[in-house]
Write a structure and sequence with these properties.
There is one protein chain. 42% of the residues lie in helices and 22% in strands. It is an alpha/beta fold and 297 residues long. It contains ten helices and eleven strands. The longest helix is centred in the C-terminal third of the chain and has 26 residues, at 271-296. The chain has helices at 3-15, 18-25, 29-43, 59-83, 99-104, 106-116, 168-174, 203-206, 219-227, 271-296, and strands at 48-51, 54-57, 91-97, 120-126, 140-143, 153-167, 188-190, 214-215, 232-236, 246-249, 255-264.
């Protein structure tokens, strides 16, 4: 059994088909199939249930998966220790994040990091869902809930605040709500109720709101809807400096706090990833503090 065959196994297990795995491996499906057959011969067990719908891991494949991921992590730590040993960071790191963080925090933070490390490539994956680290969609993920998975390592990144806001023009035309009760009949902007991917994002139901006339899976789109005079929205305080048209509403009654978590695969010794995680943590905390102070002012 060699590492190259394990690499093919991991890519196929994550993609669940030869066609999808070929993009990650830069190999044609026939070659991938031969590599898997060679690995199955070496292990003496079928690793995949193969069908027209794709490749699904067998029980033996599931057992091998955890060991293959450990080998991959060990190799990554070794490479990271070498590339992170010097002062200048290099290579590519992919960061998954919810779109609010990706839009209003990460651009400034990543620009600052790469300015100091010109050989480092930082890629931001902004998705309206939780980024899947097991499928290697990203090297680091920022989430709004601490993951339950035992095979993931989560570190508290920073708390952040959210407020209820609307455009000054909308408030002038429709009046400013004077109580939480008024929100039940107000024109609200929020997430599409049945597509909320994390319970921490279900702001409106906690406020007793059942109807959301303007909705999006993206918090950034919701902010633009509010700026356009669409109604009332729960927005990040760190986004308010980018939306001067907006005014806070019911500031004493609606003052929410959530937490960003920095998530990655567990392990020790990856000096490069540790350094980048530290720079991201420092940068995001600083940026939240700066922007929330600007919003308060």
């Amino acid at each position: 059994m060699n590492w190259d065959d394990l690499r093919v196994f991991l890519a196929t297990a994550r993609a669940e088909s030869l066609t999808s795995a070929k993009n990650a491996l830069k190999l044609d499906p026939a070659t991938i199939a031969r590599r898997i057959a060679r690995l199955e011969e070496a292990t003496g067990a079928p690793l995949f249930l193969k069908s027209p719908q794709g490749y699904r891991l067998t029980e033996a494949g599931q057992r091998l998966l955890s060991h293959a991921e450990e080998a991959e992590a060990a190799l990554g730590r070794g490479m990271g220790a070498l590339s992170g040993a010097g002062e200048t960071l290099s290579g590519a790191i992919r960061i998954g994040a919810p779109d609010g963080c990706a839009t209003y925090l990460l651009p400034q933070v990543c620009a600052s990091i790469t300015a100091a490390h010109p050989d480092l490539d930082l890629q931001i994956v902004a998705l309206p869902r939780i980024v899947n680290l097991s499928r290697r969609e990203a090297d680091l993920a920022i989430t709004v809930s601490k993951p339950d998975a035992a095979r993931l390592r989560a570190e508290r990144l920073s708390d952040y605040r959210l407020s209820l806001a609307a455009s000054r023009d909308w408030l002038a035309q429709n009046g400013t709500p004077q109580s939480l009760d008024a929100l039940k009949t107000a024109r609200m902007i929020g997430y599409i109720p049945d597509m909320i991917f994390d319970a921490e994002l279900d702001y409106l139901s906690a406020l007793g709101v059942s109807r959301v006339p303007l909705a999006s899976t993206s918090i950034s789109v919701q902010l633009q809807m509010a700026r356009a005079g669409g109604g009332l929205a729960v927005v990040h305080d760190f986004a308010l400096p980018a939306a001067p048209e907006l005014q806070r509403v019911l500031a004493d009654e609606v003052a929410l706090t959530r937490t960003f978590w920095l998530v990655r695969h567990p392990g020790h010794g990856d000096a490069r990833l540790d350094r980048i995680a530290g720079l991201l943590t420092q940068g995001i905390r600083s940026e939240i503090t700066r922007l929330e102070a600007a919003a308060a002012a």
